[in-house]
Amino acid sequence: METTHGTETKKKAELATGSTTAMRVIDVSSIASFFALQIWLGYRISAHHPLALWPMFSLTILAYLFADFISGFFHWMADTWGTVNTPLAGKVFVRPFREHHVDEMAITRHDFFEVNGANCLISIPFMTAAHFLPLDSLWGRYAAFFVAMWLLGIFCTNQFHKWAHLEERPAYVEWMQRHRLILSHEHHQVHHQAPHTRYYCITSGWLNEPLYRSRFFPVLERIVTRVTGMVPRKDDAGWLGIAPARADAALESAHLPAEAAPAIDKA
Ligand SMILES: [Zn+2]
Ligand SMILES: [Zn+2]
Fold first, then answer.
1. Which residue among 119, 143, 176, 262 is least enclosed by CB atoms within 10 Å?
2. How far apart are CA 130 and CA 99, in angstroms?
3. 8 A C-beta contact, residue 160 and residue 181
4. How much distance in Å is there from the Cα of 161 to the middle of ligand 2?
C-alpha cells in the first residue's frame, strides 16, 4: 500500500499537468451550449403570459436549496463509494473529489472554464429536457423556470466552491460569503477536516447543518451497506493514514463530531 505522503505527491503531480486542448474545447462548448439553452428557454417562457413574482421568488429559493442538496449528494457519493479505479466513474467522478481532499488549493489554480465546464456538460441533458415541457401551460412554464433556476444553482456550485478556497477574494464575494448567500470559507473548512464526512453541500451550504444533525448521510450509508454489502470509504484508509486493521473502527467513529474522533483527525 502506498504511503499517504507518496499518494499526495503523485496526486499533486497529476493535477499539475492541467487540462488538455480536447478538455478545453469540451469545457468551453459545454458552457456556451448551457447558456444558449438557458437564454433560449427564458425567451420561450417569456413569450407567454408573464409568471407571477412571488411564485418565481419561492421557486428560486427552492431551486437553490435543491442545487445545494444535489451538490452534497453527489459529493457524498464520490467521497464515499467506489475507488479511483471504478470503471468510468472512477476517473471522471471519484478522482476529482478525493484529490480535492489531498490538494484543496488545486481548484484555485483552475480557470473559469476548467472549474465550470463539467457541471455544464452534466446539466445539458436536463436543460434540453426542460425545453420539452409544455410551455403553453402555466404549470409547464413554472416547472421549466424551476429547472432553469436549479441548473443555474448547479452551474454556480463549483465557482462558489472555488471561491470558498481562495485566499484573496473579491469584495463582492466576501460580501456574499459573509451574508451566507453562498458557501463560505469557514463553513466549508468543516468538510476539509479528515475524515471528510461532514458538510458535503458546496453551493450555499444551507443544508449542511440540518443534514448533519439528522444524520442523513450516515443513515443512507447504513442502508446502502445493508442492501449492497459495500463498505463506505473502504479504500480511504491509506489516504487517511490509518492502518487497514483500524479502518473499520475509523469508519465507525467517522460520523462523530471532530472532538469525539481524535484518532482519525491526526492523519
Ligand atoms: Zn469531499
Ligand atoms: Zn473544498
1. 262
2. 33
3. no
4. 6
Longest dimension (CA), the chain: 64
Cell numbers 489516504 correspond to 239
Distance (Å) from CA 223 to ligand 2 centroid: 26
CA angle at 110 for the pair 107 and 111, rounded to the nearest 5°: 135
- Give the best-scoring range by mean pLDDT among 61-70, 76-85, 235-244: 61-70
Amino acid at 144: A
How many CB atoms lie under 10 A from the CB of residue 231?
A: 15
- Assigned C-alpha cell, 39: 437564454
* CA 25 – CA 32 distance, rounded (Å): 11
DSSP state letter for 50: P
pTM of the predicted protein model? 0.81
C-alpha 48 to ligand 1 mean position (Å): 43
Distance between Cα 241 and ligand 2 center (Å) = 20
Q: How many Å separate Cα 127 from the centre of its chain?
A: 18
Query: Domain extents for the chain?
Result: 4-253
Cα–Cα nearest to 128, from 68, 38, 232: 38
pLDDT in tens, 131-183: 999 999 999 999 999 999 999 999 999 999 999 999 999 999 999 999 999 99
d(CA 32, CA 112): 12
198 CA → ligand 1 middle, Å: 9
CA angle, 163 as apex, 114 and 71 as ends, to 5°? 75
Q: Are 116 and 31 in contact (CB under 8 A)?
A: yes
Condensed to tens digits (0 to 9), the pLDDT of residues 20-61 reads: 888 899 999 999 999 999 999 999 999 988 889 999 999 999
Please tell me the distance from the alpha carbon of residue 222 to that of residue 229, in angstroms, as a whole number.
Answer: 10
